[in-house]
Every structure is written in C-alpha cells, then in structure tokens.
C-alpha cells in the first residue's frame, strides 16, 4: 500500500453509510468523581444526541459527504427527536427502524474539568441491530460502509457484505469490539480497508504497550491502520509506511465524539484523494474543532470551518 491510497472509485449516490448506535447522551460536567455512597454537584447538565455511528454520520454530513445510517431507535420521544436531528443534518434515515419493546439507547457522560470523560452506556434498541438490517441494495449505493462499536458477529456480517458488493469497509471496533475473541477480530481486520483504534484499544488487541509495534502488527491485516492518541496526535500505518501526525492545540471543553469526528475527517480526506498524512491532518483538525464545545455534536465543523482552521495553522489544502 502506498501513500497515494485511492478510496473513491466511482461516483455513488452515497459517500458513506454508518452502521451502529443511535443514543441520547445525558452529560454532566463535574469537578470530581463522587466517592461511594456520596454525591457531587454538577456544574452543568445537558441532554444531547449521540451514538458513535450517528455522531460519525453527522460529522461526515457536515463535512459535505452524502451520508446514510443503518440503526435502531425506540418508539419513544428520544427516538423521534434523534431521527429529526439526523434528518436536519442531512443524514438519510430511511433504513433506521423503530422498536416497540426497547427504548432508545442512552449514555450517561461524566465530563471532568480537563475535558476527559467517563461513560455509562445503556444499549436499549441498539441491541436489535443485526445482519437482517443489512440491505444489500442500500449498501451498494455507497462508496464506503463504516461500522462503529458493533458486536463482533455483526461486524463479521458487515465486512462480508462489503466484500461481496465490492465497496470499501472502515471499522472502529470501540470498547465493545476489543472485548471480542482476538482470532475473530483479526479475521475482520484482514478484510478491513481502514481500521480506527485508540491507544487503549490497540494495547488490548495486540497486547503490547508499544503503539508503533501495535500499528505494525495490525497493518499486516488491515490496509490502513490509524491509532488515535488525543493530544499526542495520530499514527497512520499502511504497509511499511508510517506517518506521525501531530495534534492541534485547542482549549478542550469536551472530548465526547472526538474519535467519530476524526474518523469522518480522515475518510473525507481519502475521498478528496489526499495522501494519508494529509488525511490525518484533516482528521486531527476536525477532532480539534469538535472538542472546543460541549456535547458529542455541537462542535462538529463544516468543511469550510476545517479549511479555515487549517489555514490559521499555516496549512493551505485543496479539499
């Protein structure tokens, strides 16, 4: 694999389809984590729309990509509002299904003063997402399908559909994925075009504390391996090529959804035929802008905002 990796092969009705969770985020900003049998007072509280796949879909749509999503929500007010928000953002929700038995998924997010977060997830209707939802006709409309934080069996089904239909597959296993059997994970990775992980996840998958060695190991499986490292930037490995892409310094308010923003920015870069290291800069810029505002989506930038931010850092890109 060379640096000049080509993602777009032909013009499709959709650029990307996200598959995974739609959630409502209940976010509290606190000074410290409460001790057992005690409480702390929240400095602020908000209810926001979230879910890794939904966040990615909104991020991609704001960047100008034609985006769809396959997911489940509950037949409740949070489900209705979640879909209204996605439609407002230009995301095609025609393949989102309603559950009468399970409520819309939710995540309780505790945000510390430095912007770091701890999360408690209730999967709800997200549990119903299965291979039966993978409409081949719909998937074939896209250049790339992106699976995010889905169970290992569903990830296997998604990658099999992508290979059958000849479309690209990107995968962010998340906390749910890295808990799976390592042999099953590596089988999926070997059919993955773009693999996104963070430092904690690659350590768990590979079993090494050396991030570069982790990336090297995984690059023997996936075509492109990205390790997201927050303030330390990102590593991008493809074949024997390694890029270390620095992060941008911003005032971090809330890192919720930063990884999803990064993923969307990186895929945008490849769809714009940018080299891997440039796609990494676009991804870091997208994530940097996101974390300057509270909530998973409030800070997600448009393409023009990303370009302006890059220019303010002396980077003038044709994207």
Structure description:
With 319 residues, this protein is α/β, with parallel strands linked by helices. It has a single domain (14-21, 51-104, 123-312), classed as 3-Layer(aba) Sandwich (UDP-N-acetylmuramoyl-L-alanine:D-glutamate ligase). It is built from eleven helices and 13 strands. It has helices spanning 52-62, 77-88, 136-139, 152-165, 174-177, 182-189, 199-206, 211-219, 258-271, 276-290, 303-312; strands at 14-20, 23-29, 44-50, 67-74, 92-99, 105-111, 117-122, 142-148, 168-172, 194-198, 224-228, 234-238, 241-245. The strands form two sheets. It has a nine-stranded mixed β-sheet with strand order 5-4-1-8-9-10-11-12-13, with helices on both faces. The chain has a four-stranded mixed β-sheet with strand order 3-2-6-7. Strand 4 (67-74), helix 2 and strand 5 (92-99) form a beta-alpha-beta unit. Helix 9 (258-271) packs antiparallel against helix 10 (276-290) and helix 10 crosses helix 11 (303-312).
Characteristic key phrases:
11 helices; alpha/beta; 34% helix; 9-stranded mixed β-sheet; 4-stranded mixed β-sheet; UDP-N-acetylmuramoyl-L-alanine:D-glutamate ligase; 319 residues; 13 strands
């Amino acid at each position: 694999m060379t640096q000049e990796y080509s993602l777009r092969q032909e013009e499709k009705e959709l650029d990307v389809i996200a598959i995974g969770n739609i959630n409502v985020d209940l976010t509290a900003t606190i000074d410290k984590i409460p001790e057992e049998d005690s409480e702390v007072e929240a400095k602020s509280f908000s209810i926001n729309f979230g879910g890794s796949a939904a966040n990615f879909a909104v991020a991609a749509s704001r960047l100008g990509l034609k985006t769809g999503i396959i997911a489940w929500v509950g037949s409740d007010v949070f489900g209705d509002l979640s879909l209204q928000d996605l439609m407002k953002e230009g995301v095609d929700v025609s393949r989102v299904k309603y559950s009468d038995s399970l409520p819309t998924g939710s995540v309780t997010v505790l945000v510390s003063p430095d912007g770091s977060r701890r999360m408690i997830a209730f999967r709800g209707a997200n549990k119903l997402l299965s291979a039966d939802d993978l409409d081949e006709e719909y998937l074939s409309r896209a250049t790339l399908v992106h699976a995010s934080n889905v169970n290992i069996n569903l990830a296997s089904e998604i990658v099999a559909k992508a290979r059958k239909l000849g479309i690209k597959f990107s995968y962010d296993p998340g906390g749910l994925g890295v808990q799976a059997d390592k042999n099953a994970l590596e089988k999926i990775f070997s059919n993955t075009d773009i693999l996104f992980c963070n430092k904690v996840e690659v350590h768990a998958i590979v079993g090494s504390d050396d991030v570069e060695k982790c990336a090297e190991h995984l690059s023997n499986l996936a075509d492109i391996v990205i390790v997201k490292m927050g303030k330390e930037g990102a590593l991008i490995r493809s074949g024997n090529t390694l890029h270390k892409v620095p992060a941008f310094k911003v005032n971090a308010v809330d890192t919720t959804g930063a990884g999803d923003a990064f993923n969307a920015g990186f895929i945008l870069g490849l769809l714009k035929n940018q080299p891997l290291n440039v796609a990494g800069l676009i991804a870091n810029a997208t994530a940097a802008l996101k974390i300057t505002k509270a909530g998973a989506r409030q800070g997600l930038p448009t393409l023009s905002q990303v370009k302006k931010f890059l220019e303010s850092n002396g980077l003038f890109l044709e994207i």
